[in-house]
Amino acid sequence: MEEAFNRAIWEERLIGQAWTKDSIYENLEALCDLGGRFAGTPGEAAARAWLAERFHAIGLSNVHLEWYDYKAWERGPCQAEMVFPARHPLASALALVYAPPTSPSGLEAKVIDVKHGSATEFDAHANEIPGNIVLADSGTPYGYRRRIHRREKYMRAVKMGAAGFIFSNHLPGQLAPTGSLQPGQEAEIPAIGISKEDGFFLCRNARRGEVRVNMQIDSRTYPARAAHVVGEIPAAEMAPHILIGAHYDGHDLAESAMDNGSGIALLLALAELFAPLAGKLRYPLRFVALATEELGLVGSTQYVDNHRHEINDIALMINLDSGVQGGVGGFLYNGFPELAETMQQVIAEMHYPLILSPRIISASDNMPFVLAGVPALNPFRRDLTISAGRGYGHTIADTLDKVEERDLRENVMVIAQVLLRLALWPGQIAQHLGPELLMDILRQQNLEESLRLRQIWPDFGAADETT
Ligand SMILES: [Zn+2]
Questions:
Q1: Which label site among 39, 265, 336, 424 has the fewest CB atoms less than 10 Å from its CB?
Q2: Model-level pTM?
Q3: pLDDT at 25
Q4: Distances from the Cα of 172 to the Cαs of 1, 95, 103, 392, in angstroms?
């Protein structure tokens, strides 16, 4: 009875602080003041130092940086224009992350429009793709069960022999999308992002006959170092811990406020709210501000590899990424059956409307953990309709005005309540999954082809070679 009584008091305190602490929004502002925090830039380094300082100020234990080597990418000038049937600049064009440079005169070829870039849409143009430039938008065909990721479309273009790749936004607003082409390495073929408006212009012309585009990219891929910022709240005894992760790197176009300033603001808020509970929880909490997510989950993949020997000590991973954009909220449990059961109980106790979904977001930091069998939870408060895509994410419009303080506070409140219950959970939160069950879940969610194309389908052992 005593524990329940204590929990109720803590819970009241957490809810009250979620709505009253000024630091919650101030942290987000401070982070946005550092710019987009693209990996390898001074803004990213400043964010890392600021986070370590915040972790210390909050009173987390064992605050440290975990360094690793990776390959950074730097954007140079980029230009693209339609050169046939008439000259028309594609003013929105920007190089996608890890795009290799072209020759100074640029890459010029015919444009092949594969619409949303599903396998069927690619196959319809199989003969025309070799040597030409594939144009795909960021949308997903109607009725598709999952969003088709940029890297999947890009890799399909590469495999089918394309010479270049154009990724057009499917949402309006003169917003060219950025994003990485390859996890952590220079990509095979030149690639640019363009706005929906420029993409529509190309498609309209391509319907009437041949369209040729010239793209000129200058860029550089170079060795660099990054670090995760780690801090802990110890429990009464050593036990498997709950890892709360959020990536602090962003893109070089804007403030990366939604993706993922909002996630870092949540992480800091949770750290601050829970710090006084050191020694009182059943599960220790480990807060990890992850680096280089936007380069293709480079940082979280490195973290999982580096902690492989103690992977069973991670009871649960909670990934805070771009979750604060209004809309109905809830939790994705990444297909882990026992996590679903635990979360059903947690949510039933809270008397608060929350969605619980098995869906796996395969292009965020939860994924390397999921692939290692670690139960993972993605809180969200945004429109997850597949056609909604990323919204303003990865564009010049990912700025602070897009994150409502109220949404941020509501997220803090809900996630803090859930985290409190999970951190006091009397038994195992959820079992780690072995390769067979994991493979079933990935296949159920129609992810095999995507993961294979993106070269992150795990090596499930020799048995898989025959399937
Ligand atoms: Zn993100």
A1: 424
A2: 0.95
A3: 97
A4: 56, 19, 31, 10
